[in-house]
Amino acid sequence: MGVILGINMSGRDSSAAVVVDGVVHFAIREERLNREKKTRRFPTLSIQACLDAVGRRLEGVDRVGISWNPTLNLERLNSAQSGLARYKPEHFYAVPNHLLQLWPRETSFLAEQRLHFPSGVLEIVYVNHHICHAADSFLQSPFEQAAILILDAYGEKDSVTFARGSGTRIEVLRTIPFPHSLGSFYGTMTQFLGFTPDLDEWKLMGASAYGDPARYYAAVRRMFFLREDGGFELDLSYFNYPTFSRPTMYSDKLVALLGPPRRREEDLEQRHYDIAAATQRVTEEVVFHLLHHLHALTGLTDLCLGGGVALNCVLNGKIAEHTPFRRVWVGSSPDDGGTALGAALFLASRDPGFRRSPAVHNYWGPGFDDAQIERELRRYRLPYRRCARPAREAAALLAEGKIVGWFQGRVEFGERALGNRSILADPRDALMKDRVNGAIKYREAFRPFAPSILEERTADFFEGAHFVPFMEKALVVRKDKQRLIPAVTHADGTGRLQTVRRDVNPSFWDLINEFDALTGVPVVLNTSFNLQGEPIVCSPKDAIRTFFSSGLDALFLGPFLLEKGPTPRTSPDHAD
């Protein structure tokens, strides 16, 4: 199977990934390296990091998979849409003709080219965007067979894809074309509420818990027509987004329906929370409608979700209750960033001998050994000490009410920090949410923080508990436990949890276990290690800068501890 490089440069979150003999070897988002949050830049640094990880030059890679197929936008039947400047990175597909040999062979999923170097030929494969989402989800799922639903703003032409996965194959059953797009609808409402579309959708989701959906439900529901054949259509007269050229995604008709949009500098009022709640409620109803249809098409009860809409953890947590699907898999990177990995895995899956490997983590980015970390600490002449038991010391600090930066192992690939690049705090303190927001994250007070919990204790604290490795679902916190973990219990009584397994992340599991021994609570508050407007930290240098630019009390860099104050504190576990 060889070495396959996957590249995403469609929309935000440009990224790259490399798969070696069918196994994920390395994956990184460009933002982690160029320090530009949600970057749209070509993933030059990410590609180089992938090549360095496998010791190859670009021409030494066996194949390159691009997670967008521009040939679909050139079809005569799609000329009206392909003539629009739909996304800037499309220019990067314009490889000079004298370097290309276009293969005559195309399938409905991909188109292929060859780029000639003096030292060899590089095969470039353009894979349909929704197929990349589907491959990222299904090929890393624990299911041998599953129904697949992809929901985003749009791929090349489609905004919804119904598919079936079996073994290593993905079969497309039906699509719904753009502009009838649930992702674009949610983005429009995000902008209407004064946030940035394609970036701040989770702010709308977080705000929805504080609203009454009934007040605006009928108005928002009026925008949708649910078809008897299992699809849907939007009343496009409420929207400007299909033109890609107007300053707002919503039209004057939507303003007349819902009232004036919120300006960014305005405080959120109850009306805004109510609109957010209605938007979330209608989104869930539309997705449940689609899922009932998908179940009828496949007869399966295992589901894989992908696309940006699958980042909606509130929706994800309700699927098993409201649809025939009993098990729901959402990978760590259902957004566009994950399509780099999806492109590489899809190409690998077409080779004889490919074997699927269910994902249990996404720690696929760069890592730093103790010597590298210590060199960085000495470079800045920082007072630090080496801990014999970092997890125990970190747990003790958390139990004392300290806010801790936790930097261990390799960088997470997805949107969320999962215990390698995390800010941690005590979930028992009801004021801790405001403390973390005020001292470090500087973000809206209505946005919740996540509980990370020992997997074996999940059922004690959450209803319908199961393996939730990527913070991909919000589940209901048991009523008798909500008072124990108020800092991570959202206004609607849910928590966007991460279940932590000892064999997957032993250092993070040890920390939570030590905290449980001290407090009787096997949960810590976990949020991404970054300041507002910045990507998650990647390197020790990033972590040190963030530590001294925020209200963090302590920072664990591998085994090394930094604390703010005149001198580092001593401990019986001290080891030089």
In summary, what is this structure?
The chain is an alpha+beta fold and 576 residues long. Helix content is 30%, strand content 22%. The protein is globular and about 60 Å long.
Description:
With 576 residues, the chain is an alpha+beta fold. It has an 8-stranded mixed β-sheet with strand order 15-24-23-16-17-22-18-21, with helices on both faces. Strand 1 (3-8) and strand 2 form a beta hairpin. Helix 7 crosses helix 9 and helix 14 packs across helix 18 (506-519). It is globular and about 60 Å long.
Secondary structure class reads alpha+beta
Mass-distribution shape:
globular
Helix content: 25-40%
Give the spatial strand order of the biggest sheet: 15-24-23-16-17-22-18-21
Computed Rg: 24 Å
The total count of strands amounts to 24
Determine the strand fraction and express it as a percent band: 15-25%
Number of helical stretches of at least 4 residues: 19
Mean pLDDT across residues: 91
Unreliable spans: 76-107, 567-576
What summary fits the major beta sheet?
8 strands, mixed
What are the main properties of this structure?
single chain, 576 residues, alpha+beta, seven-stranded mixed beta sheet, disordered C terminus
